[in-house]
Structure formats: C-alpha cells, structure tokens
Amino acid sequence: MIATLLSYLPWLLLTLVLEGAIVVAAAPRGHRSSALRACLALNLLTHPTATLLSWRWHIDPLALALLEFLFEWLGYRQLLDTPTSRSLRLAFSANLFSGAVHFALWFGLLH
Amino acid sequence: MRRLVAASFGWWLAASPPPDLLPPGTKSVKHELVLEWAEALDGTRFVLSPGLRMGNQILNRKEPFRLSRTVRSRLYAIPAEATLPKRDEWLSEGTWPSCEIPVREVRSTGAGHPLASVLTTLRVAKVENGEILLERVAEVRRDADGNELGDLEWLPVAGLALLGAAWLWQIDRRRRRPAPPEAMPQ
What we know:
Chain A has 111 residues and is mainly α. Chain A is 88% helix and 0% strand.
C-alpha cells in the first residue's frame, strides 16, 4: 500500500502545483487565496477519484480528464460564486496546462 | 478462404491503432500466464493458437507464455502422436478439444500505479467432450522491484479522495455561513 501511495503522490502533487499556479494567476486580486483553496480541494477529490477509476476499471484517461474538467468547472462556479464564463476559463486553463505538462512528462518517461 | 480471412485481418489491422500504442497517462504491464496439468495428461500436448508471435505455440508445463495481442487465442489439447499443422496455420475450433483462455490480459495501467507485471497460473481440470476445463489457480501482481502487490493498494488513494471531499464540504459550509453581525460599539 505504501509503495502505491509513494508511486502515486508525485503525480498528484504535480497536478496540485500546476493547477494551483494557473488558478492563482487567473483569479482576481483579493480572491486568490479562496481560489487556491478551492482548486486544491477540488483536485484532491477529482485526481485520486479519476486515478482509481482508471486503475480498477480501465476507463479511458481522456474521458476521465473531461469529467474532471466538468466537475471542477461546476466546483469553481459554486465555491467562488463566479460567473459561469469565468469559472469555465479557470477550469479549462488549469486543466489544459496541467494536462499538457503531464503528457510531456509521460511521453518523456516513455521514451 | 484463408486468403480472405488474412486479407480481412490485414484491413482490420490497418484500420486499428497499433496494439502497442499506450493511451496517454498509462504505462505498459507485462502479463504472463502459466499452465499446469496433471501427470495423467502427459500424453497430451497443449497448444496455444495463435500465440504471441501469431503462430501455434506448444506450451510446456509451468513455462510462462503470453497471449496474442490482436486475435483471441484458444487453447487446444492435441494427442502427442498427432501431427501438428504448420506453425502459421492456426488451429480451428472443432478439430481438437479446446477452450478460450479465461483471462483478461492486463496490458497497461495508470502511470502512477506501481504494477509492472502479472503472472496468472491456470490449471487444466479436465479434457472431455471436446472441451478443456481450465481453473484459475493464482494471480500474482508485482511492482518493478519484484515485490508482490496486495489487493488493497487502492485504499490510500481512496483516502486522499475522501480528504478532498471533506475539505470541499468544509469550504462550501463556510461559504454558506452567514457573516457574523458587526460588534455593537461600546
């Protein structure tokens, strides 16, 4: 169990750092700490959940990424009381950036 | 007929992505199988058709083998004295007792998962009425260092998800809490 946790944690921490950075940069001044809290909490739920769904039931990672994005979009809208368009931009940019870095790392590790 | 099957297979291969192409965010897993059978069946050859290299593969007791990546393999029980067809001529159902391999091959897993290899042990329970009855004896999953992985390795990850859910609930609860009234000036 510890081996699994140690193997998984770097990927989760990377996601938290990448998405947190984007959300802090994109959030309006005065709301950055609440936006960061929301981002970390949302990803602490969605990333392990998506990972488990992938590990146990081999669900397509891209489909899971889309579900994560949708959930985080709704989460930002609810938790930050922001308009739909702003929460959509937040979720989209954070997930796109994180996904691109993950893909580059995965590709690099593969080769 | 064989040419038609081969041509159809070629078209299907061309239309499908390469079987070794991993979806993003995953890594490959080596899944091998091992077949055991009682000494009473030593006069029988067990042949995998097709095997990993797409030909007929004679299986040795307890020697690891892998399944074909593109075509569903079948296991055949052929008397030792019978002549085997050419290596690239696949056996077909009905010629000898046979069965499908009752194992779902694990080819990949999430990139963060420590799983590196799987070894599934099957045993031939009996061969009768044109069928082979296989039993799954054991399945061992190991990481890259050869350490065996347990069944509960998902538990810590699920724990993290629960932590996230609890944190979200707390954030949402705080958000809904009415602001405290301003203190009365003294």
